[in-house]
UniProtKB/TrEMBL annotation:
GO terms for molecular function: RNA binding; zinc ion binding. The keyword Repeat applies. This is DYW domain-containing protein. Pfam families: DYW_deaminase (PF14432), Eplus_motif (PF20430), PPR (PF01535), PPR_2 (PF13041). Keywords: Repeat. PPR repeats lie at residues 10-40, 42-76, 112-142, 143-177. One of its GO terms (biological process) is RNA modification. InterPro entries: DYW_dom, E2_motif, PPR_At4g14850-like_plant, PPR_rpt, TPR-like_helical_dom_sf. Residues 330-380 form the DYW domain. Belongs to the PPR family. PCMP-H subfamily.
Length: 418
């Protein structure tokens, strides 16, 4: 390569090459160049590597690179903070997010609209809405991204009416909502059972606001109708979509089928999922996304059926022992929505290995009794208070999370009993 043959390489040319390979998603080469720079690396070099990881969703590597940056006593900048806050938001790394916010305060960095939005987004996605609102209200200037981050945060944590209030207030401030704001708005309506309001805003998107609904907006509407028990209407909406429904849309309807115990429709939906993606659809149970947990300042991510975690054997033993205890008191896992082309033992294993259960089990194994652990699933976060008695699952606002319209406890998480 021309770069290798160049006898004189300065930090600018090194940084340009690293940036180029990061943008091409060639991280092996980018990292090799990064490591070969040695003491030539400057703040721009570190920011380029960290930002590259974040943009390509390598969030764990972004945080570990920042930790290397600290070890080499390189002072981070606002750009570093924004990239790291994005990584924390997607990983649910609230403790790391708190540390970054504390660093911003200690260094007296100006929290402008750019950094402020990153903080609001991080706190919302990590479940700390009180902190998000505190940052939001302190911003002297708020753009559409700040408002959208807040609306999404309120919506995803079940504050539908508050999301609507923020949506209305944003327009009073003269800011036109964007596609992301509508995702938060519709999600809030879904989690709050606001069927009429959600339908009204969805119908106004194109005609009133000039925004053509995308796959995410249709997915929110399918979820809204499905959660409310309007499964037939949800299916009709899917068939009427001007764009092909993806696995997320079908998966949303499948979860609603489980919620409302509609086994007949669930079989039809499962067939569509398997046609779309035989591999992901073949998890033998409704769609399970990633769950993560922060233990000892390290983020551990789990996916349904994944056995790659170094402590998976211990986690599996923990879950097996728990399953035996539950079986001893007469409990059997609900396998109504597990596909029928596998044997009973495989069905029980697939139900036991939901990402959420694996993450909570790991947290219980790794955390002293009496302390709380935080689990993030599908960018929704909650805490589990560890005790020998029934474990109560609470969110960051110290109110019980609602799931299947019931109070969710760790007992229900592992047993499915309501």
């Amino acid at each position: 390569m021309l770069f290798d043959s160049n006898p004189v390489k300065n930090v600018i040319s090194w940084n340009a090459m690293i940036d180029g390979y990061c943008k091409l998603n060639q991280f092996t080469i980018a990292r090799e160049l990064f490591d070969h720079m040695g003491f030539l690396k400057n703040t721009v070099t570190w920011n380029t590597m960290i930002s590259g990881y974040v943009q390509h969703r390598e969030f764990g590597r972004a945080i570990s690179t920042f930790q290397d940056m600290q070890a080499e006593s390189v002072k981070p900048t606002v750009e570093t903070m924004v990239s790291l806050l994005s990584a924390c938001a997607h990983l649910g790394a609230l403790d790391m997010g708190y540390w970054i916010h504390g660093y911003i305060r200690r260094q007296k960095l100006k929290v402008d609209v750019y950094l402020g939005n990153a903080l609001v987004d991080m706190y919302c996605k990590c479940g700390s809405l009180e902190s998000a609102l505190d940052v939001f209200h302190r911003l002297s200037v708020k753009n559409v991204f700040c408002w959208s981050s807040l609306i999404v945060g309120l919506g995803m944590h079940g504050y539908g009416k508050q999301a609507i209030d923020a949506f209305v207030e944003m327009q009073k401030e003269g800011i036109k909502p964007d596609r992301v704001a509508f995702i938060g708005l519709l999600s809030g309506c879904s989690h709050s059972g606001l069927v009429y309001e959600g339908g009204q805003y969805f119908s106004q998107m194109h005609g009133v606001y000039g925004i053509k609904p995308g796959i995410e907006h249709y997915g929110c509407m399918v979820d809204l109708l499905g959660r409310s028990g309007l499964l037939t209407k949800a299916l009709e909406l899917i068939w009427s979509m001007p764009i092909a429904p993806n696995a997320a849309v079908w998966g949303s309807l499948l979860r609603s089928c489980q919620l409302h115990k509609d086994t007949k429709l669930s079989e039809q939906v499962t067939e569509h999922l398997l046609k779309l993606d035989p591999v992901d659809g073949g998890n033998y149970v409704f769609i399970e996304w990633c769950s993560s947990i922060e233990v000892g300042n390290v983020i551990h991510e789990f996916v349904a059926g994944d056995t790659s975690h170094p402590q998976f054997a211990q986690i599996n033993t923990f879950l097996e022992e728990l399953a035996k205890k539950l079986s001893g008191i007469g409990h059997k896992p609900d396998m109504t929505f597990v596909l029928h082309d596998i044997n009973e033992e495989e069905k029980e294993t697939s139900v036991r290995h939901h990402s959420e259960k694996i993450a909570v089990a790991f947290g219980l194994m790794s955390t002293p009794e009496g302390k709380s652990i935080r689990v993030v699933k599908n960018l929704r976060s909650y805490s589990v208070v560890v005790s020998n008695e029934q474990l109560e699952v609470i969110d960051e606002q110290n109110r019980t999370i609602k799931k299947k319209n019931e109070d969710l406890s760790a007992w229900q998480l592992f047993t499915g009993i309501n």
